[in-house]
């Protein structure tokens, strides 16, 4: 995206901008993979369920991956009967299972107990799967690790191997990484799965290898292609992946304006008209989001802070060629995934307006008003 054009064109802030060109580029990478090895692509809409994104993704994917009834409804609204909808969640509700079964094409049960509870009520209409915990950890931070000790996510691979439940399912779902930039974890997981139950894999119809891999940032796709082709050849399986951040992560920008600037305990502070509440993972995981204006060699250092009353509403310390002034605009980049979907109106601040950039024009697709805030609490 042309950042300077955005700053000049979008006079109000905060604004969240999606670059359609970058989204299409990411989807094109995935579509090429599908051509090379036959892998089926599901966009994981939990990353960003914008209808604009779903509409752009639809021609490039085989369907959507969802985590709840509302996501399933949205996916069905966009797809109708023209694509697959795969549900994976740790918490299926008994009062929702009938509607879910009528909407989704595949249901991955998270536990043997949920499988036993619901399988008979959905097996006629949906393809049944199980989420597997392969007990292989690749994330240093346990908050991101689906295979952490006492994990709530998936059936322990040892318990699965000892049970006879595979005779009552059509597929397996595996998801163990986040923001991975190589395929080493996936290769190790499939190796373990083959070692445990290779003879049983041939009885299945499909395997879902999950998400978490940043395909556009991985140069060598051949290991992935070889892995998928081998699974298809050896076990006659449909192979799925469900990228989310890989589709939208690097396509989103959050633009904010400096409201105030002052010195606190010897450090310059710039107060922005946005907040970490518009990108909650900054606070949740204490990471500093990438800033377009940051210059590692810049002479001036400033702490960028949000406008809420939360003391920890701080994006981080950045360096600039010149000090920021009141009215200056800054742009956080690579915030397309898990930002707007988690954003909130804490302190009564409006959510960012949402624009779609097509390479030439900025089209406003959503604006948060007082009426929206009132309706939330009415």
UniProtKB/TrEMBL annotation:
Key word Chaperone present: no
Residue stretches making up the Orn/DAP/Arg decarboxylase 2 C-terminal domain: 167-336
Main localization of the protein described in the UniProt heading: cytoplasm
Annotated GO CC locations: cytoplasm
Catalytic activity, as annotated: carboxynorspermidine + H(+) = norspermidine + CO2; carboxyspermidine + H(+) = spermidine + CO2
InterPro entries associated with the record: Ala_racemase/Decarboxylase_C, De-COase2_C, Nsp_de-COase, Orn/DAP/Arg_de-COase, PLP-binding_barrel
Annotated PANTHER family: CARBOXYNORSPERMIDINE_CARBOXYSPERMIDINE DECARBOXYLASE, DIAMINOPIMELATE DECARBOXYLASE
Stated name of the protein: Carboxynorspermidine/carboxyspermidine decarboxylase
């Amino acid at each position: 995206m042309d950042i300077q054009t955005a700053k000049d064109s979008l006079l109000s802030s905060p604004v969240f901008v999606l670059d359609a060109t970058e989204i299409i580029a990411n989807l094109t990478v995935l579509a090429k993979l599908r051509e090379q090895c036959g892998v089926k692509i599901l966009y994981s809409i939990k990353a960003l369920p914008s209808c604009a994104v779903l509409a752009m993704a639809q021609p490039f994917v085989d369907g959507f991956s969802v985590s709840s009834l509302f996501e399933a409804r949205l996916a069905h609204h966009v797809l109708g009967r023209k694509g697959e909808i795969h549900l994976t969640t740790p918490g299926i509700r008994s009062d929702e299972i009938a509607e879910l079964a009528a909407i989704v094409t595949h249901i991955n049960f998270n536990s043997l107990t949920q499988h036993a509870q619901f399988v008979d009520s959905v097996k006629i209409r949906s393809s049944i799967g199980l989420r597997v915990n392969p007990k292989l950890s690749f994330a240093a931070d346990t908050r991101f690790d689906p295979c952490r000790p006492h994990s709530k996510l998936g059936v322990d691979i040892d318990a699965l191997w000892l049970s006879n439940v595979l005779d009552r399912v059509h597929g397996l779902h595996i998801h163990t990484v986040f923001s991975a930039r190589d395929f080493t974890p996936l290769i190790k997981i499939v190796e373990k799965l083959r070692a445990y139950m290779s003879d049983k894999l041939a009885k299945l119809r499909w395997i879902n290898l999950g998400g978490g891999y940043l395909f556009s940032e991985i140069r060598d796709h051949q290991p992935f292609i070889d892995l998928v082709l081998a699974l298809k050849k050896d076990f006659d399986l449909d192979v799925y992946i469900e990228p989310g951040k890989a589709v939208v992560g690097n396509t989103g920008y959050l633009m904010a304006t400096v409201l105030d600037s002052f010195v606190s305990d010897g450090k310059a502070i710039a107060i922005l008209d946005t907040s970490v509440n518009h990108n909650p993972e900054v606070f949740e995981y204490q990471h500093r989001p990438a800033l377009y204006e940051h210059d590692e060699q810049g002479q001036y250092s400033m702490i960028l802070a949000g406008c809420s009353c939360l003391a920890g509403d701080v994006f981080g310390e950045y360096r600039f060629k010149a000090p920021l002034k009141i009215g200056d605009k800054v742009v956080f980049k690579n915030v397309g995934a898990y930002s707007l979907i988690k954003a909130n109106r804490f302190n009564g601040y409006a959510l960012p307006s949402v624009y779609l950039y097509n390479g030439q024009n900025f089209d406003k697709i959503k604006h948060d008003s007082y009426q929206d805030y009132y309706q939330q609490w009415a």
